[in-house]
């Protein structure tokens, strides 16, 4: 049983290495990832942010206009690709690969 699991793990690792070494997986920016790859990358991103955001103290921004400046900056530079509350991403943003998250 243990030998079967070890051999299986080695075969999976060899297959993954073959895909990487010979460039068999298309990582071009004009193609979506396969769903399992997309899900794995999305999960990795969420876990990475969660691990690094733990120790960040939330600043008091209510009184110094940072929220308003941030909203204006987002409206001018981000909403075209990511959309916003009640605003869909532009055609340009929707045509990007991978599609920008909300």
Question: Describe it for me?
Answer:
- This protein has one domain (2-94).
- The longest helix is centred in the N-terminal third of the chain and has 20 residues, at 2-21.
- The relative contact order is 0.08.
- It has 102 residues and is mainly α.
- The N and C termini lie far apart (46 Å).
- It has helices at residues 2-21, 35-53, 66-77, 79-82, 91-94.
- The mean pLDDT is 87.
- It has five helices and no strands.
- It is 58% helix and 0% strand.
Order of helices and strands: HHHHH
Provide the gyration radius in Å: 21 Å
Reported for the largest beta sheet, the result is: none
Low-pLDDT stretches are none
What is the average per-residue confidence, as pLDDT, rounded to a whole number?
Answer: 87
- How many beta-strand segments? 0
- How many distinct folded domains? 1
N-to-C terminal Cα separation, in Å?
Answer: 46 Å
């Amino acid at each position: 049983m243990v030998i079967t699991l070890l051999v299986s793990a080695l075969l999976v690792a060899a297959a993954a290495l073959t895909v990487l070494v010979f460039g068999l997986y298309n990582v071009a920016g004009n193609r979506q990832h396969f769903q399992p790859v997309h899900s794995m990358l999305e999960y990795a991103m969420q876990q990475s942010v969660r691990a690094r955001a733990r120790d960040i103290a939330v600043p008091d921004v209510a009184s110094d206009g940072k929220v308003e400046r941030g909203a204006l900056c987002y409206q001018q530079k981000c909403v075209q690709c990511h959309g916003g509350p009640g605003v869909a991403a532009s055609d340009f943003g929707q045509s990007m690969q991978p599609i920008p998250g909300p």
